[in-house]
Amino acid sequence: MHVKGHFFPIASSNYQVCVATISDTHIEVINDEHVIARHAISSLKLSSGMAGLADELNFEDGSRFIPQDVSYRWPFKENNHHIMERLEKSKWAILAAVIFTPLFMWLVLYKAVPAIAVYSVDTLPRNVVEQMGEQSFTLIKKIALDPSELPAEQQAKVQAHFTSMLNALSLDQSVYRLSFYKSDSFGANAFALPHGRIVVTDDLANLLADKPNALKAVLLHEMGHVVHQHSVRITAQSAASTIVLAVVFGDLEGVAEVALGTGASFAQQGFSRDMEREADTFALIQLESLGYSSNDFADAIEALQESHTSKNEHLEKVNDFLEYLSSHPSAQERIDNARK
């Protein structure tokens, strides 16, 4: 069998018009009746066939032969190459790939990865979680927190409530720590860090100064985030999702950096709606167990909603859209759930 084509010598972009002659065990490349290359078929490397492209033969010494006829397929080509080529030409296969690839990615990123994250966080050593929390705390302090201006008496009062709840719930005081900071960025807010530190802003403490039980409800909500390791889980999700996408799209260079940078990554993300609901449920259950009312939690959300709304009146027309995009359940949903 004779095949016309172009022969590229070793490490050269210049080619010679030649004829490849195929026998049972060898292939010879002939130019002007002179054999310029001879190789065993078993030593050949064949490129994967694609519609519209010729099958390229790569010889063991680095030279190449490309048929002039792009539709020509070598007789010794393996069946799996033919299967791939048929799939690439099949409209049904292309349609299936368009439909099922996004579905597969959705299942991996939104079902498999979160499920793995839930079970993987329990295997993390405490010192790793502590380091993640300190990295996050250092970053947030640098960009968004200022020293608290709350009177020492007011801080001590809230700290006493916090310690009392920790004792009642048998939570480790060496893990759960309370800090006060002033923050123009966060306003009236509180947040929990991976290693157990809970930050309350001056604005929140002042907003709920006359509603101490409402502030306790907020603190219990933040404790819920720590108890359920939400920040660690969402960091694990973020890292795993990045690795999955890197593997799928073939960019592995950044995978090693994921493990180094995940310590502060949760600071850039909100908790998911499910995690917020889980923390809400923890707060509501513990309020009842400590002798308070779930209405205290509703009072806290209402006060926060009024505070934030008064500062963001220009957003009222798009509130519904923002709630859809938000990682938190809507304020009204949380209030209704607490008052049930």
Q: What order do the strands of the largest sheet run in, or round the barrel if closed?
A: 4-3-2-1-7-6-5
Order of helices and strands: EEEEEEEHHHEHEEEHHHHHHHH
> What is the terminal-to-terminal distance?
83 Å
- How does the major sheet shape up? 7 strands, antiparallel
Radius of gyration: 32 Å
Number of strands: 11
Global mean pLDDT:
81
Q: Looking at the chains present, what oligomeric state does this protein adopt?
A: single chain
Beta-strand content estimate: 15-25%
Helix content: 40-55%
Number of helices: 12
Overall structural class, as computed from helix and strand content, comes to alpha+beta
Give the uncertain stretches in residue-range form.
259-271, 313-326
Dominant shape: elongated
Integer count of domains: 2
InterPro entries: Mito/Outer_Membr_Metalloprot, Peptidase_M48
GO biological process, one term: proteolysis
Family: Belongs to the peptidase M48 family.
Protein name: Peptidase
Structure notes:
It is a single chain. This protein is of the alpha+beta class and 340 residues long. It has 2 domains: 2-89, PH-domain like; 119-339, no CATH class. The chain has 12 helices and 11 strands. It has helices at 79-89, 91-120, 126-144, 152-168, 202-207, 212-227, 230-249, 255-261, 273-289, 295-311, 319-325, 331-339, and strands at 2-8, 16-22, 26-31, 34-40, 45-46, 57-58, 64-67, 146-147, 177-182, 190-192, 197-201. Helix 2 (91-120) packs antiparallel against helix 7. The protein is elongated and about 100 Å long. Residues 259-271 and 313-326 have low confidence and may be disordered. This is Peptidase. One of its GO terms (molecular function) is metal ion binding.
